[in-house]
Amino acid sequence: MLLCSLAIERIEVKELLVSGAVLGVILGIAAQQALANLLAGLVLLFAHPCRVGSRVRFRAGALGGQLDGLVVDIGLTYVPVETEDRPALLPNVQALAAVVLAIPAPAPAEGAKPGSASAPGRAGRPAAGLANAPGAPGD
To answer: Rounded to whole angstroms, how far apart are CA atoms 60 and 99?
Structure first.
């Protein structure tokens, strides 16, 4: 039935196959990054190089150096990280390719109550001091 319809319209099957192949290549190239992020997200969810709520340092050339912060979530396309300055969305492909280092929680200051923020006005946020963490540049 399909071949009869194509014959009536004088469309060769060979032309349809070539058009389908070209369209497939174009769609494959266009969707490459999105599919790569989805697959990397699945690997991150199963491999657990970092966990939600952990303080980490991502090091990679693609990041322009390193990114320190608190992992807020691990999604299918991005890893949201709360840094000292502002929130950042790290694509899963880069998170998977980066070296992931755990940053130990800063020691409470003398005289501070356990569980209180070390800096005034920062209740509920990670304490400052990522620049002084072990392994930071300048050590």
So the answer is: 6
